[in-house]
C-alpha cells in the first residue's frame, strides 16, 4: 500500500530543493561578479591615488556598499548550504530522534530571526535618504536585508521539509514546539505590558540583561544553532528588556546593514582572496624548498622544514587551515617515506600552522582593530604580531628538536652549492616579496591596510599568472570560495553588533569589570584569569566568534587597568589561535589529521608538550609587553 502522506511530503521536499537550487544558481555568479568588480575597484583606487594623485571618492563609496551586499548575500548562500559556523557538541552526542528535536528548535528560532530580518528589511525600503556621493537610494540599498531574511526563511523551510520527509513524527514535533515557543512569546509580551513586572525589570536591568544574554546565547550554542544567529537572537532578547518590541524588530535590519558600513572591513575579503590565490598559485612548493635550506641541518629536519614553511606560508595566506593543508600536503608523503613518526608529524604541522595568524598580514588583527574602534591601529598590530608569531613557531621547533634528538632522527649532511642556494632563494623571493611590499608599504605610510589588501590581490594574481598555475575556471572558484569565507565572518560581525549593542545598552562590560575587580584589582592577576578563560573558550569556539564576543567585554576592562590595546590584541589572538588546534572545534587539527590519515586520539599525546611550551610563550607575551610592543615603538606606531 502506498503511503500518500510520505509521497506528498517527498513532493514538497523535492519542490523546495529545486527552489533552493535556483536561488543558489542566482547567488553564486552574483557573488563571483561582486567580488571580482570589488577587486578591480580597489586596484583602481590605488592607481588613482598614487599614479593620478587624485583619490576616487566614487570608488570608495561603491566599494563600501558592495561589501555590505557581498556580506549579506554571501550569508544568504551560506544558509542554503549550511556553511555558517556552529558548535554541535550536544547535537553529536544524542540519539537521532533527539537530534531531530534539537534541529527543529534551531530551525524555529532561525525562522523567527529570518522573519524579523525580512520585516525589518521591508521597513527599510521606505528610507528615502541618499548616499552622499553617488546619490543612491538607501532604501533600495537596504533591500539586501530583506533578501537575507527571505533566504533564511527559505533555508529553514527546506530543512523542515527534509525532516518531515525523513520522519512524519517530526511534523507533530514541529507543531508542538511551535505552539510552546509561541506561548512563551505571548507570555513575555504579557509581562512587558504589566507595569509591576516592568518596574522590576527596570530596577534590575543590568543583572537581568547579563543572565538573559549569556544564558540564551550559550543555550543556542549548545543545541547547534549557527553562532551568528545565536548572537543575533540573544542580543534581541536582551534589548527587548528595555526597548519597545515593535521598535526593536523594525530597526534590526538597519543595525545589521549599518554594522558593515565601514570601509575598514574591505581589507578582510581582499586578504582572504589574496591568500586563496596564493594557496592555488604554486607558492607552497617554492617556500618548502626555501625552508629546507633553514631546517635541513637541525635534528628532525623535515619537521623543522614543515614549521618554517608554515610560518612563511601562513604569513602570506593569513590562514592556518591554508598553511596546514598546502604545506602538510607536500611534507606528509616525504615524512612517510623517511619513516617519521606520523602522529608527531601531524601535531607539528597543526601546531605550527597557527603562527601565520599572528605573523602579518593577517585578517584577525584587522577585525580586532575595527572592534576596538581603531583603539589599536592595524599597522601597530601587524608589527606587534611578528615576535609572538615566531615564538609560536619556535615553541614547536624546540619540542621537535628534543623529540628528534631523543629518538636519534638523522640530520642531513649533504652540502648545497652556492648556485643551488641562489636558485632556491630566487624561486621563493617573489612570494616573500609580498610581505615586504604589504608590511613595508603600511609601516612606511605609503598606503593604508585596505589599499595593501588590494595590492596583495593584484600581486598574488600576477605571480599565479607568471607561474601558470591559475585558469579562468580556478579563478572563479577562488572568487566564490573567498566570498563565502568572507561572508561567514562579515555576518558574524553584523550579528555580533546586535549583541554589542545590547551589552552597551545594559552596561554589561561594566558589570563584568566590577566582578573581575572584586576578585582582584591587580592587572597581572586579571590577565591570568583572562588567559585561562580564553584558552578554555578557544577549545569550544572558533577564532572569529570568540574575538567578536569577548573583545567588547574584555577590552574596556584591561585598558582601564592600563594594558596597552595593541598588547592585549596580541594576547587575545595568541590565546584563541591555540584553540583552533584543540578538539572538539579544532578545525586545523581535523585538517592535519585528514592529510596524514592519523586519528585525533593518537595526535593528542604529542600535542601536549607542544601546548605546554606554547603556553610558556603565552606567559612571556602576557607579562613582558616589550615582546609585542618593541617593533611598533621602534617604528613610531605605538
Automatic annotation (TrEMBL):
Q: Where are the transmembrane segments?
A: 31-52, 64-82, 102-125, 137-160, 172-189, 210-236, 256-275, 311-335, 347-371, 377-403, 424-443, 449-467, 479-504, 524-541, 607-631
Keyword annotations from UniProtKB, A to Z: Cell inner membrane, Cell membrane, Membrane, Transmembrane, Transmembrane helix, Transport
Q: Can you give the residue ranges of the Tripartite ATP-independent periplasmic transporters DctQ component domain?
A: 38-164
Q: Where is the TRAP C4-dicarboxylate transport system permease DctM subunit domain?
A: 214-626
The topology of this chain with respect to the membrane is: Multi-pass membrane protein
* UniProt GO MF annotations: transmembrane transporter activity
One GO cellular component term noted in the UniProt record for this chain: plasma membrane
Compartments annotated for it: namely:
Cell inner membrane
Q: Which Pfam families does the annotation name?
A: DctM, DctQ
In which broad location class does this protein mainly occur, judging by the first location in its UniProt entry?
Answer: membrane
This protein's superkingdom?
Bacteria
Main role?
Answer: Part of the tripartite ATP-independent periplasmic (TRAP) transport system.
Instruction: Enumerate the PANTHER family for this protein.
Output: SIALIC ACID TRAP TRANSPORTER PERMEASE PROTEIN SIAT-RELATED, TRAP TRANSPORTER LARGE PERMEASE PROTEIN
The name this protein carries in UniProt is C4-dicarboxylate ABC transporter
Q: What is the native source organism of this protein?
A: Vibrio mediterranei
